[in-house]
Input
Amino acid sequence: MLYNKRVLIIDGSDSTRTILFKELSSTLPDLDIIACGSAKEAITACRRFQFEIITTGLALPDMDAFAMLDEIRKQIKNRNTPVFVVSGDTHTHIVDPENDDANMVTAYFDKAEGHHALVKFISDYLSKESTLNAKVLYVDHDDSSSAVTTSILNKNHFKYLHVKQGQSAIRELEKDFRAHQRCSYDVLITDMHLTQEMTGFELIQKIRNELDFDFQMLPILLITQGPGDNENTDFTAMFGAGTNDFISRPVTEEDLIERIMNLLNVKRQSEALAPE
Output
């Protein structure tokens, strides 16, 4: 598996970091854990690595925690990583309508519940949302490009269905929704051009407008051709159609897996925070 699961622990307390590191290492020995005592260290780590989960305390020695998270969210590697703030004042943050930090924080974890509860939460989250359980719908009519992408999906043990036309993808999503009463696909990957019957843009628009699957219910990755020397990528059209993210050909394994994992985190956050 190319993608290594990593957790980032940020806390100004040496003892807290040590306890969390030891307990997580004991519970999940194969997990890569990085523990930082300052915002500067954490921002540097986020520029270098993609994390499965980030936890942070609010008391940091060199920067306001929310200013740090703002910097972390600017890094494409961790733009969608779940961030859990460990705080003794969770109630105020959750109910305060004037709080502008909602786009940076996935949820607040009550510090009073203790280290064991936090470690159990992280362990349960990672085990339940294993990459091996990810389900991808892939739409591409070109045999050569499909061969490259499906080989990457196979190598990294993703469950996927490959269809060649946009209308086939729509029928599959409708059938899936009827069977599960929700969208059970975690990510949709589509080529931009497809066929004259339906382009990638038109497919995405139908998913967003006719099926009413929003950005969190079904994150979408659009595969585009790289622009020529005198061309610019039309970001407005891409994101206006309802794309979560895009990737240009030629597609590399590392880049594709990183984009998929980012979008999986979008889906995971939505499901984790949805009411029972």
